[in-house]
Amino acid sequence: MIRIAFDIGGTFTDFVLQDQARGILRVAKIPTTPRNLEEAVLEGFDAILAAHGALPEDVATILHATTIATNAILERKGNRTALLTTAGFRDVLIIGRQKRYDTNNMHLDKPAPLIARRHILEVGERLAAAGSAVAPLDRRDLAEAIAALQAGDYEAVAIAFLHAYVNPAHEIEARRALEAALPGVAVSVSHEVSPKFREYERTNTTVANAYVRRIVDRYLGSLTSALERRRFRSSLYIMQSNGGLVTPEIARSFPVRIVESGPAAGVLMCAAVGKEEGLSHVLTFDMGGTTAKLGAVDDGEPAITQSFEVDGINNRRYSGLPLNVPAVELIEIGAGGGSIAVAERGLIKVGPESAGAEPGPICYQRGGTRPTITDANLVLGYLDPDWFCGGTMQLDPDASRAGIASHVAQPLGLSLEAAAWGIHSVANSNMERAMRIVSIERGRDPRRYAMVAFGGAGPLHAARLARALGVPKVIVPLGAGVGSAIGLLTADAKIDLSITRILPLEAGQEWAIKAIFADLEARAAPDLANLGGTGEARWRRGAYMRYQGQGYEIRVDLPSGEIGSDYPARAVAAFEAAYKTVYGYIDAGARVEAIDWYLIATVPGVGEKGATARQLVGQDAAAGSGKSARRAYFPEAGGYVEAAVVNRYRLKPGERVVGPALVEEREATTVLLPGDIAHVTGNGHLMIEILGG
Amino acid sequence: MTSRSAEIDAITLSILWNSLLSIADEMGTALRRTAFSEAVREGDDFSTGIFDGRGRLIAQGNFTPGHLGAMPYVIENVLKYHAPDSLKPGDSILLNDSFLGGGHFPDFFLTTPVFRDGAIIAYAVTTAHQVDMGGAAPGSQRVQGISEAYQEGLRILPIKVVRDGRFEDDLMRMILGNVRVPAKVRGDLMAQLNANHVCAERLLRMYDTYGADTMGRTIDALLTRSEEETRAILRKVPQGRFEFEDCLDDCGPGTPPIKVKVTVTVGDGEIEIDFTGSGPTVQAALNSYINYTRAYGVFATRCLTEASLPNNEGSFRPIKVKAEEGSFFNPRFPAASGGRAAVQIRIFDAVNGAFAKCIPHRAMGAFSHWANPNIGGVDPRTGKQFIMYDMLLGGYGGRATKDGVEAMSPVMNCSNIPVEVIEHTNPVRVERFELIPDSGGAGKYRGGCGIRKDMRLLADDAVLTLLGDRHKFAPYGVFGGNQAAVGRSVVFSGNEKIDLGSKEVAVLKRDDVVSLRTSGAGGYGPASERDPALIERDIADGYVTVEGARKAYGRRK
Question: Are residues B61 and B94 in contact, defined by beta-carbon separation less than 8 angstroms?
Fold first, then answer.
């Protein structure tokens, strides 16, 4: 049984082949081919199969994370899309929630809506908040709208009527008419895409779904047929933002669910690595070229949020477009290897502006002129100029020194090493701020968590970040450079549905609760039939609940099994336990209500999973830089000191490395601080005990 | 300064400054997530600040400008009543006086001294807008018929409300006995104390890590540098005296307009904002106490001159705000002020109008004014009292290089309340919520459109309280840009159509429809210079009608 996972990134497409019988994980990286993504995909498949001596028909399952939907949204290059709204509410999408993302800036702009006002059409109809019809769907309005849609040459239409989350009748009626009159136009309706209250968020989610639907459809269609032409008979699964896999059919109907596909897979990898090492509480730290992404795994499960913003600015709320889609909880800040450092107001400022991969840091010698975090790390000796990316790239430390000197050291009256150290430290302090939000501000005690660090720059900054927060252990997983692809191998098929029904939790409400879950199960049924997993579905129920009168809900898992007369009381008890964990107290006796209800169905059986790795092959492992030490900056040891350089691929399980040291692998360098101790575990992961500091 | 100590400084400064901001933010998160009132949770109507042992502001969270700007003066006032040597560990002081505090009673300031080795190293301060402070009307913000502060609810001069880390039961009982929603007020006060504790704990850890000496030198350097930087930025503004004049509609039906006059004097790295010449104190709850006037005067100046960060005493020093005692912008106690929030946009507009004369590239056309209506009555679905609090937020004026933004919160930063939430919690049906075509001031860069919301009452009767403006005096355009359409507030009752004043109180019957239409926002530059492609785009998107384009831009087609 062979499984192949692939993750298409902006620069590289990562492949991992898992051969469970031989206990092998084989890895390959192929440059992404942006104009025709399948090209790199097929090349990668050929290469990795050839290296493994296997044939297409040996592959049972293919798993895929993709940014195709995200990119269409970020670049505003989606389908030609129209929106139908309730008459009087044409501007729901344009008005939004109206808050500025920066209070102190009155010159900023709102996030641009996905479609312009001219593409928004009104139709007479109205439901009351409780779902009863106040006015029927106006047939004449609908006919006019259809004529306009026909004339407008649209590829996709979204329908979002007020209160449709309670009663979908008008949306269903309008869709039927549209589908009859406009064959070939994909219609997305709000009660299916996002049956939640708050009209702006629901409308935007529905429009986003319509906006990327044809694009995802075409992409998955051509990918599937390309694989078929190569005689792959394996089943293809797509990663959703919630960390669960679905079939291409579901992804093509609800493409808005795969927007955070790649990042979700990365967090799954962290969860799996934690599990292998017996650590169920994990903070995830992925630092790449332009951003750092921080997340959490609680009790072995990636933290999930029911909504997030896409295309935001430096993690500021209201700067992006809100999507009501369950997603792995991540904070993303503008701190990556390419983040630019400047001297401003007598201080050092790092990011969010980034030199990206092109032109990149000064030391890449591709035209970058402004110093970045990578330049600082090179000057500090953390990176080896002769063995960057396993020696495939030569870095120029003199150019980095000159850039840091003129842009940071001189304006601030600092020495060169102080300036480089300043850039490194300020970057750490920015990430510490974000990690505090993920941990302390959300009720997670960092001392009870381990950190899993990956991405090109993550292992370089992780130990200091862990020290600042009191995190006792850092794990740099095997195959950190292809983390998302490895994460795919650990995923289950998963359907994640939710619906708004505002309900006070008191005796007698068990019938209403029963009806809600029956409704959700009915909605899940067709998707489940489509999933084709081999195992029995595992169901999980939950609700977002609050004390009546509060404005923020917390997520509460609800008991499974029979919903009897004691169910409302059991739900309240579950709420109080969860509330106490988050806030430290409960308001005993106060009335509790539930707002959104969710149902998760997980189907095991997307191939056998097993351990993420025991033996990693395919990366020319044994060759290292060949050096045994170099000078690197450790202020706690007095400045530049001779630090041991260790080839990670040569470390044997149990062998210990004491900091200060630099542990090198192809895609990353792990900085080990004085007093900290690292060893490779039986699973091949690098485990660092944070003891110093 | 030797180069070695300079080295310590730039890096330590950067890191410690980041940490202080992070503490101020963390206080905000603690406050928001445990608060009970809508204003705190939804409107972010709260603020956090850290002051050093000498009472100097060193960092603030990015929350409500009105609170942020008032805070330094509030601490000064608190310490006048409670000398530092009279404070003990575990004490906290509460104040809500409109003159000493944030300009109206609902703003609660809680100050907690932070002790280390027996000395005060800092003060943690939080402000939260309490949803009710008693007085003549729910919410304590009624404008019409309120002539003195004593009608506006409970007034608290600085009192030691917390000892040994616990609220004094007797004082709490007295406060809660005077408000309509005691559970919310109590919950928010607890949340404020909780946030102050978060601040104290993290500050103490910082002091332990870096030492009192480094912390002290860092704070001095931060304030000095912030002041120097602010002055350097202000030096880019051409020196001179720049005046601007405008009017607020009135302070209720039958009252005269209120004159708003501002003189901006730009000196060498410093700016004075002077409201002398504005109208007198009014006999309605609209007056802007000096702390409020200062807060928004400074906020507008910093936004317009780009001297926006960091928020601390150093960066505040070069900007002075003044107004004559006894005037609308500097009333004496007990002037009524509950509804003064309606004035903040006008303060910004006036300061912007004056700055247009010296920094045209930063100025904007005037904002759509907001509308902050309340509808209160009995909900027939539950038989219980309801208060529907709403916020209509229109457009921004045209800017030097682009059109004004459509439908975004001006000045104070709040979000709207979704129609589906309003209809779920109130016996009201919203019949339309949309932009008003042709209402934005024409110009080379067009002002944003006004916004319209029509609401039908589904209860037997109710009281409508309006808090808006710009029904009489249109939002101005700049540099030849047109003014915008004025706003209107209309009630449709049976076959009748009744126009209301911007701050009127009216009784509604079942099925009456309240139609609120804010003004548009002003244009920037002459309409004749507008790119024809933008005119066509606006017509296609319906922001401007064909007829409107003919009138405003002379478009022929």
Answer: no
Between CA B394 and CA B365 the distance in angstroms is 13
ipTM (interface predicted TM): 0.92
Q: Within a 13 Å sphere around the CA of B338, how many CA atoms are in the beta-carbon half?
A: 32
Interatomic CA distance for residues B86 and A452, integer angstroms: 49
Residues, chain A, total? Answer: 693
Q: What confidence score (pLDDT) does residue B9 get?
A: 65
Contact A265, A7 (CB under 8 A): yes
Whether residues A88 and B183 touch (CB distance < 8 A) is answered with no
Which member of B64, B299, B405 has the closest CB to residue A110? B405
| C-alpha distance from residue A342 to each of A242, A408, B94, B218, B333 (Å) | 37, 6, 42, 20, 49
Task: With beta carbons less than 8 A apart as the criterion, state whether A455 and A477 touch.
Answer: no
Chain B, 4 to 63: residues with Cβ < 8 Å from chain A are 6-7, 10-11, 13-15, 17-19, 21-22, 25-26, 29-30, 33-34, 36, 38, 41-42, 62-63
Task: Read off the pLDDT of residues A563-620 as tens digits, 9 standing for 90 and up.
Answer: 999 999 999 999 999 887 766 667 777 889 999 999 998 887 665 555 445 556 655 5
Q: What is the DSSP string of B184-213?
A: HHHHHHHHHHHHHHHHHHHHHHHHHHH-HH
- Reported as a single tens digit per residue, the pLDDT across A250-268 is 899 999 999 988 889 999 9
Residues 6+ apart with CB under 8 A from A476: A452, A453, A454, A458, A459, A462, A663, A668, A670, A685, A686, A688
Angle at A90 between CA A88 and CA A92, to 5 degrees: 105
**DSSP-assigned states of every residue in A70-105:** HHHHHTT----EEEEEETT-TTHHHHTT---S-TT-
Assess A578–B contact: CB distance below 8 Å, yes or no.
no
Here the tokens at position A337 are 């290897």
pLDDT tens column, A303-358? 988 889 998 887 788 999 999 998 999 998 888 899 999 998 788 999 888 887 77
Q: What is the pLDDT of residues A107-161, one digit of tens each?
A: 999 999 999 999 999 999 999 999 999 999 999 999 999 999 999 999 999 999 9
Helix (H, G, I), strand (E, B) or coil at A279: coil
